[in-house]
Amino acid sequence: MILTLSLSAALLANPMPIVQHEDQKPFNCTRCDAWNEHVEPHLLAANTWYVGSKGLASVLIVDKKGLVLIDGGLPQSAELILDNVRNAGFDPAEIRWILNSHAHFDHAGGIAALARITGAQVAAGRDGVFALTKGPYHPEDPQAGFGERVRFPSLSHVHAVDDGDVITVGSTTITAVDSSGHAPGGMSWRWKSCRDDVCRDVVYLDSLNPVSTDDYRFSDHPKIVEALRAATERLAALPCDVAMAAHPDQLPEAPNATTTRCAAYADQARENLRKRLEKERKPAVVL
Ligand SMILES: [Zn+2]
Q1: For a pLDDT cut of 90, what percent of the chain falls above it?
Q2: pLDDT per residue as tens digits for the range 214-270
Q3: Could you tell me the distance, in angstroms and rounded to a whole number, from the CA of residue 181 to the centre of ligand 1?
Q4: Which of 25, 78, 186, 229 has a CB 3.0–4.6 Å from the CB of 102, allowing a cystine?
Q5: How far is CA 45 from the centre of its chain?
Q6: Which residue, among 25, 24, 85, has the nearest Cα to 53 in the 3D structure?
Q7: Environment of ion ligand 1 (residues, CB < 5 A)
Q8: How confident is the model at residue 10 (pLDDT cuts 50, 70, 90)?
């Protein structure tokens, strides 16, 4: 009799078994565990919280009429991001939009779970929609050669945006800035954060690194190189009081008071591309 009672009490205390949904199955990569380490949510600007993990950014933009989340980390980041949203004092069910920087497993992997749980709509650069809805990567992606290894949970519907398009929630307007090159359809996002009539320009910077599979040469793809160069100059010129990058550890400090962090990020991107093209120019060793 006592046993029956205590079992019932245990069932009442824990009525539902914890089931991990298919779209939250952990992605396996060498850096995934380090990237997915927990950090406390913290304010970046008056209306902007950092709610991502240690190595993969997610930010929450707050308006009285609803919330906007940028990026969803890995599939296994979804719970961590939701916990950070709650710990910052917000209800994930108030997230109206989830925006993506680029459609790779480490920034879009958790978006399917986050969209399912919150009911939010998803928006991404037009050429990112293929990887988000069909996968694995866009055929023109420098990392497309990784094939099925980089597949992440798919979404059924994504709103396609182009450079300059805006997402509006209440009095907050978030503008898409074309940043394709690292991945087709890559987007940076910018908005204003205001308090007491003082407004600051906030920018979420997409990746600009020339990363590829071993057999890919950027020099064979002038359109991709051109896109990377154009994105770099676009980001360098943005008003930029507060910056965050999709990979926070790739965002340098501004070297002086007259250089923005967006411009410092662009300087670094120019140098990375220069080095990559130089390496590709070296003649192959013929034995
Ligand atoms: Zn990427």
Answers
A1: 90
A2: 999 999 999 999 999 999 999 999 999 999 999 999 999 999 999 999 999 999 999
A3: 10
A4: 186
A5: 18
A6: 85
A7: 104
A8: very low
Q: Alpha-carbon dihedral of residues 59, 64, 66, 68, nearest 10 degrees?
A: -20
**pLDDT above 60 (res 145):** yes
Q: What pLDDT digit, counting tens, does each position of 181-201 carry?
A: 999 999 999 999 999 999 999
Kindly state the tokens that stand for 277. Answer: 């093209």
For residues 63 and 58, give the distance between their C-alpha atoms in angstroms, rounded to a whole number. 17
Q: Which fold has domain 34-281?
A: Metallo-beta-lactamase; Chain A (3.60.15)
| H/E element, 272 | helix 261-281
Q: Parse the chain into domains and list their residue ranges.
A: 34-281
pLDDT tops 50 at residue 44? yes
**For the residues of 53-120, what is the DSSP string, one character each?**
-SSS--EEEEETTEEEEE--BSGGGHHHHHHHHHHTT--GGGEEEEE-S--SHHHHTTHHHHHHHH--
Could you give the CA distance from residue 228 to residue 250 in angstroms, rounded to a whole number?
Answer: 16
What stretches of 216-280 adopt beta strand conformation (E)?
242-245
pLDDT (0 to 100) of residue 20:
74
pLDDT recorded at residue 287: 63
- Ligand 1 centroid – CA 281 distance (Å): 24
Catalytically annotated residues: 102, 104, 106-107, 182, 216, 247
Backbone angles phi, psi at 115, to 5 degrees: -70, -40
Closest CA to 200 of 271, 254, 260: 260
> How far, in Å, from the CA of 239 to the mean position of ligand 1?
24
